[in-house]
């Protein structure tokens, strides 16, 4: 029989939508299951074959859970603000709102052609004023709690996007989006105080089921470090405070390094004989990214601060001060004590500038290389610390510093507050006005949403102000506080804003009184399973956890964590193993695959392509293999007979398959679930027939992967009432899942002579008889006396023999 996928797939997509079978119920006695994928950015390129991988994976889970009787919420929406759309709009002179509408329409059509069981009645769009009203509302709550504030900042500035970037958006010194150079610039910015949540963002990882690599990345990004701040006096009478995680090594500090931006340089400027060289070095450092500056491998550079020295508080020795770009102004105190014996960067710097290297922890050869692996050593050359272990020395020196008023213990974080301003048009307006009398004041909540005004031109201005700054009508307003003249904020929010809380909106997407009702939040929270890309681990995942914790603190949500479980998929690469891109000419268009082979084939293929968590190269021949499997399944109806139930010879195969497919879907082992179904179809066709019950079970097991063809076969062969999506997931009998035969080894005097396939749990004597009957074994025991017969059930036989 010919399988004609086009009419069949279209037919079932329409039936599902008309019946609303995938609509989640808000009031249900059933147990809820909330599955979430990272909603797409509707770019101008349309859907990529990478998109369906996570969508299909969670669709498989969602469909299976529905069959198991869960009330499933599996929603979708559009993360539609942001630069790519705006840049496209500028280039083509189309308003970003229109571009967004067009892109969404195309994406929607493409996604719908895949037969993903999304609840389209809950579709959301971050650029919809009914949606961003609540993004703005959350911002106002953050502002009221002092967690949104304005600050003069040395920011990352993309020279091409003309826009401020968060640290996270700068990759290897260039803009993550456009690849252009990123420079530093001082600007007044809205900031969100994510650092206030740093500890909880680390500690609460204990509450969630995330892959270890995801937890580790989040912890590294937050970068909690426990150490001490130590005050060094200078010969000018100033205090130079440093941060160190190794206060125990204070006696080994032979010089100091301050960052080129350190404020003491300005204070000392008149006294420094080489101020010109220092200025030159500062200018060069400003052009480099933090990444370039702190790379361990790079050659160390620096300039001596001529005219001022520091005094080591433990021994009152005067030591030189350098400026060097390997010390960052934004971390710790922007100054360090250098301990070249035990720190690699300090050691390289000391060698280059010929500075003394003093060993303070025993064990290495510090004139040859830095001895850094010294967390457990014994202190030397360290006065009051001599003979102590590193841990003891840390405690002792910190309490000494505290008693002398020269330092104290201190926890530092790599995490910085979140730069939340963008000088662009296509984002949520920040709902704040500035009044000369009252300062920054949020607009009245009853005035939300504060809509983006229509502008003539959305190009950013060359001085770096948002295009909104040119809209005088919109700009000038009255102060909600004193009624006087006030000016609106012209910066907009970054693209991360809308995605920081969208999972809550799906719970109650049409609510106009709250971001979602208390009941909906209580019923649906937390998200049970969130799948997304590894590239979002340190950005979106952290930001949304932060917002959720804030909403928890103000009583809007009732769980401390938004996502109970997180999984991450690997990328789909081109057939050549490289990342798919236009320039490499290896892009596969999902529309063409759906057209030629059908959505079921594409879905099955994307789930079969290899370990879900790893990158996988595209393979056209494997696509054809998946299509053939679907055709084989479709043709099972040609061997359908009238017998009842499952035939005895297939009973074990079926029970095992039910167990394996179910377990594998839950454990994101989709590829082995499909392999199990492929093996089962072989077992079935080998018998030359299939019963209705066998076909019914096979159909339900295959349905989460290939929903269209299974619905069609279920209907054609009248396998039950209603449609497959309304059936029950089959159950298995554990006793029937046991392997009937098992391989054991047979040894003579401990040497392997043969392997035997025996029925599981065979009786000892029967196994011994089988073993002795084997030709190799028989030869080995010929003319021998058997001293001992050892049998380890289901594992081995060992015959101990003597001549
Ligand atoms: C003396 C020392 C001796 C250090 C030693 C290390 C090893 P984490 O763990 O990342 O917090 N440091 C401090 N502030 C810095 C800055 N603004 N830029 C660059 N480096 C900075 O690292 C803390 C360590 O990094 C600190 O401890 C300091 O060097 C350096 F055997 O102080 B240490
Ligand atoms: Zn005012």
Describe this structure in words.
The chain has 803 residues and is an alpha/beta fold. Among the domains are: 224-413, Valyl/Leucyl/Isoleucyl-tRNA synthetase, editing domain (Isoleucyl-tRNA Synthetase, domain 2, Alpha-Beta Complex); 739-802, Ubiquitin-like (UB roll). Helix content is 34%, strand content 19%. The strands form eight sheets. Strands 10, 11, 12, 13, 14, 15 and 16 form a seven-stranded mixed β-sheet that branches. Strands 2-1-22-23 form a four-stranded parallel β-sheet, with helices on one face. A four-stranded antiparallel β-sheet has the order 6-5-9-17. Strand 5 (148-158) and strand 6 form a beta hairpin. Helix 18 packs across helix 19. The longest helix is centred in the C-terminal third of the chain and has 19 residues, at 648-666. The protein is globular. It starts with a helix and ends with a strand. The site of ligand ANZ has 17 residues, from strand 11 and strand 15. Residues 219-402 form the Leucyl-tRNA synthetase editing domain. Residues 39-184 form the Methionyl/Leucyl tRNA synthetase domain. Pfam families: Anticodon_1 (PF08264), tRNA-synt_1 (PF00133), tRNA-synt_1_2 (PF13603), tRNA-synt_1g (PF09334). It is found in: Cytoplasm. It catalyses: tRNA(Leu) + L-leucine + ATP = L-leucyl-tRNA(Leu) + AMP + diphosphate.
């Amino acid at each position: 029989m010919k399988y004609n996928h086009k009419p069949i797939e279209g037919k079932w997509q329409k039936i599902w939508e008309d019946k609303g079978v995938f609509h989640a119920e808000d009031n249900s006695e059933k147990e809820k299951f909330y599955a979430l994928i990272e909603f797409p950015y509707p770019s101008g390129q349309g859907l990529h074959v990478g998109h369906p991988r996570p969508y299909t994976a969670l669709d498989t889970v969602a469909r299976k859970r529905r069959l198991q009787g869960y009330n499933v919420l599996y929603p979708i929406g559009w993360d539609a603000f942001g630069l790519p759309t705006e840049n496209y709009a500028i280039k083509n002179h189309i308003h970003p709102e229109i571009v967004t509408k067009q892109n969404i329409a195309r994406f929607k059509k493409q996604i719908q052609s895949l037969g993903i069981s999304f609840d389209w009645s809950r579709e959301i769009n971050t650029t919809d004023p009914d949606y961003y009203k609540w993004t703005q509302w959350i911002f106002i709550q953050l502002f009221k709690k002092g967690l949104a504030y304005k600050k003069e900042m040395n920011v990352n500035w993309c020279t091409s996007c003309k826009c401020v970037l968060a640290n996270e958006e700068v990759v290897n010194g260039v803009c993550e989006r456009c690849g252009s150079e990123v420079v530093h610039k001082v600007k007044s910015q809205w900031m969100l105080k994510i650092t206030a949540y740093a500890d909880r963002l680390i500690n609460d990882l204990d509450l969630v089921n995330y892959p270890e690599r995801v937890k580790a990345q989040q912890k590294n990004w937050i970068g909690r470090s426990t150490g001490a701040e130590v005050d060094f006096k200078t010969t000018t009478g100033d205090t130079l405070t440093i941060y160190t995680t190794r206060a125990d090594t204070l006696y080994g500090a032979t010089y100091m390094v301050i960052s080129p931006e350190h404020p003491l340089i300005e204070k000392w400027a008149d006294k420094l004989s080489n101020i010109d060289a220092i200025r030159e070095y500062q200018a060069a450092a400003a052009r480099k990214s933090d990444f370039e500056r702190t790379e361990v491998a790079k050659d160390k550079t620096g300039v001596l601060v001529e005219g001022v020295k520091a005094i080591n508080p433990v021994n009152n020795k005067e030591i030189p001060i350098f400026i060097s770009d390997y010390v960052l102004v934004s971390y710790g105190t922007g100054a360090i004590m250098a301990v070249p014996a035990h720190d690699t960067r300090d050691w390289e710097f000391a060698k280059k500038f010929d500075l003394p290297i003093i060993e303070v922890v025993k064990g290495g050869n510090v004139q040859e290389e830095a001895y850094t692996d010294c967390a457990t050593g014994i202190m030397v050359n360290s006065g009051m610390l001599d003979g102590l272990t590193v841990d003891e020395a840390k405690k002792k020196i910190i309490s000494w510093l505290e008693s002398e008023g020269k330092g104290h213990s201190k926890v530092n974080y790599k995490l910085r507050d979140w730069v939340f301003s963008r000088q662009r048009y296509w984002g949520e307006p920040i709902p704040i006005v500035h009044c000369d009398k009252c300062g920054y004041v949020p607009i009245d909540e009853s005035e939300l949403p504060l809509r983006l005004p229509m502008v003539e031109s959305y190009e950013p201005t060359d001085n770096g102000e948002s295009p909104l700054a040119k809209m005088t009508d919109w700009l000038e307003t009255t102060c909600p506080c004193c009624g006087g003249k006030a000016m609106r904020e012209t910066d907009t929010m970054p693209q991360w804003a809308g995605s920081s809380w969208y999972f809550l909106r799906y719970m109650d997407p049409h609510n106009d009184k709250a971001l979602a009702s208390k009941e909906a939040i209580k019923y649906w929270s937390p998200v049970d399973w969130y799948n997304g890309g590894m590239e979002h681990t340190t950005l979106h995942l952290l930001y949304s956890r932060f917002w959720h914790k804030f909403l928890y603190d103000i009583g809007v949500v009732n769980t401390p964590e938004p996502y109970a479980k997180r999984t991450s998929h690997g990328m789909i690469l081109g057939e050549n193993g490289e990342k798919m891109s236009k320039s490499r000419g290896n892009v596969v268009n999902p529309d063409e695959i759906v057209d030629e082979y059908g959505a079921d084939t594409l879905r099955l293929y994307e789930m079969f392509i290899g370990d879900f968590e790893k990158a996988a190269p595209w393979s056209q021949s494997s696509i054809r293999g998946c299509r053939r499997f679907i055709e084989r399944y479709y043709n099972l109806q040609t061997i359908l007979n009238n017998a009842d139930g499952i035939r005895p010879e297939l009973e074990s195969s079926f029970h095992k398959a039910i167990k394996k497919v179910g377990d594998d879907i839950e454990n994101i082992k989709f590829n082995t679930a499909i392999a199990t179904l492929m093996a089962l179809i072989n077992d079935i066709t080998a018998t030359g027939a299939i019963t209705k019950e066998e076909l019914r079970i096979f159909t339900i097991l295959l349905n989460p992967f290939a929903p269209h063809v299974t619905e069609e076969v279920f209907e054609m062969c009248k396998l039950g009432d209603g449609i497959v999506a309304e059936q029950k997931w089959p159950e298995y009998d554990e006793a029937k899942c046991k392997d009937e035969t098992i391989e054991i080894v047979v040894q003579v005097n401990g040497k392997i002579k043969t392997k035997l396939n025996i029925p599981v749990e065979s009786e000892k004597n029967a196994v011994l008889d089988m073993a002795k009957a084997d030709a190799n074994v028989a030869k080995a025991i010929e003319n021998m006396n058997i001293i001992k017969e050892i049998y380890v059930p289901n594992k081995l036989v060992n015959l101990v023999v003597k001549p």
